[in-house]
Structures are given as C-alpha cells and as structure tokens.
Specification:
This is Heme iron utilization protein. The structure is a single chain. The protein is of the alpha+beta class and 251 residues long. The strands form two sheets. Strands 1, 2, 3, 4, 5, 6, 7 and 8 form an eight-stranded antiparallel beta sheet that branches. The termini are far apart.
Length: 251
Amino acid sequence: MSGDSETSSAGLAVAARMMLRQADRATLATVLTGEARPYASLVGMATDIDGTPILLLSRLAEHTRAILEDPRVSLLIDGTAGFANPQQGPRVSLVGRAVPAGSARFAGRFLARHPAAELYAGFGDFAFYRIDIERMHWVGGFGRARWLAPLPACDAGTADRFEAVLPALRSAVEGPVGEGPAGADCLLGRLARLRLGRRGRRWRLAGVDPDGCDLGCGKKVHRLAFESPLPSAEDILATLMDLARNIQHAS
C-alpha cells in the first residue's frame, strides 16, 4: 500500500484491534525449544480493556515451554470466514512477546469470554499471559498489506474506570425491560436480537471496553461492536440505549 496518510494508518490499526476483539481464538507461533524452529498452535484468546491479547496456557503444552525459553511470539487472527477465497479476506499477524499476567482483571476478562475455561483455569499448570504487541502486519486482501504500530484503545486510568463501572452497568442492562418477567427481555436481549440476530434468555454483560461489549447467553459469548470507540466509561449505557433505539426504529 502506498500513499496512505497517518489517518489511514490509525484507521487500519483500529480495524486490526476490532478484529482482535471479535476473535475468541488465534494461531500462536513460538520458537520451538532447543531447535530454533517455528511452531504454530491453536489457542483461546480474549482481550484486556485496552486491547491487549490474553491467553490461558498450560506449562505442559509445547508452546508454553517454548515461551518460557524464548518469549518472542506471533499471533495470527483470521478474519476470512465467509470468503469463498480466503486470500481476499482480512487477517492480522501480531509480533511481540508473551509475558505472565497475574492480574485478576486479566483472569476475569478471559473467563468471561471463555466460561468453560473455569473448569481448568485453577489447575496448577495453567497461567494467564498477555501479549505485548510490538508491531502488526495487516492484510486486507490481495495487494493490501501494511506494517502498523499497535494502537491501544485507552490508557491505564481509563481502563480502570471501565472496570469500575461494570457492576453498576450490569445491574442496569441485565434486568427486565417494562413489565415482563425477569429474563424475558432486557436491553442486552434486545441488542442481541436486533443487532446480532441472536435469541436467548438471561443475557449477561460478560465484559465491556471502549470498542464494544461481550454479550453472554448460556455457554456462548457474542461480540457487539460500537460504531466508534468510546472515550469515556460514562458513555457506555447511553451508547447501548441509543443502539437499541436506532435499530428498532430502522426495523
């Protein structure tokens, strides 16, 4: 790609981050222990509030042993589902380092996105890792490729505020709307139905960040992206309500 402005570079970096948010898995490439050979494996993935990838890895796994020897990694996020020719679809490769991450928020974000992982996350051989992204290679299709610098969704203070408002936000959006029975309909249920085409009962707010929120129903989690990143955690509820109103009026 040539002639792109800094604005388009930032736009591509945001698009790459949105692809990360949407994905719940990735291909992890590590340096095979003792052989200096590349090794690729499938991993479950979530993101922190600022967009940092989070992994839950067992030290018994080949990729974790490799990381403990050499933390350099690459993550491939595949956005080509639905394309008859996958070469025409978007994907992004992240280059960086895997770092042990013991924060409770990292664990909470991952388990909210992958509820089934609660069965083994507490085992002694499992630990959470974050991927400190150094650069990204975005491919948007044939002839559309570019190296990009990572663009976090927010700073640490803003991330803390998004985390702090989550309990109150859950109370506001998970309760019944109108006079229906509990769980019959709620703001999340309306958004899931109208925006994502998903139906279910007892929707929960699994997580929220400047780029969107994760809606959980049973064992499944679905990503609802905002139309543009939110600068403040105080904007979340109004944004969700506006989304529901706008979609309902358009239908």
